[in-house]
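Morning run. Coffee first, then this:
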Amino acid sequence: MFLELIDGSGLTAPDYRIYNEKGDWVVENEGVEPDIVLEQNSLELSKGIDTQLMKAVEVIMKKIKEEPREMPVHKAYPVDQPGEK
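And here it is:
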C-alpha cells in the first residue's frame, strides 16, 4: 500500500505477512519487545507527564554519566561570504 502525501512524499504500510520456515511471524507486523516495560498512566499523561519518556531520559543520562564520550573534532564549517561564489 502506498499513500501519497501533500508534500509529495509517500507513506507505505505493510500489507502482507512474513513467516519463517517454522511458520512463525517475523518482525514485520509483530513489533519489537521493549528493554524496559512501563505502563502509561492516563492521569499523568493528561497532565503532560510521560512516564515512558522520563524513564528513557533517566536511563540515557545514567549511561552518559557512566560511559562519557568525547565530542568528535572536525574542521570548521565553510561559510559563504556575500559576493563569493
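The radius of gyration is 23 Å. Good start to the day.
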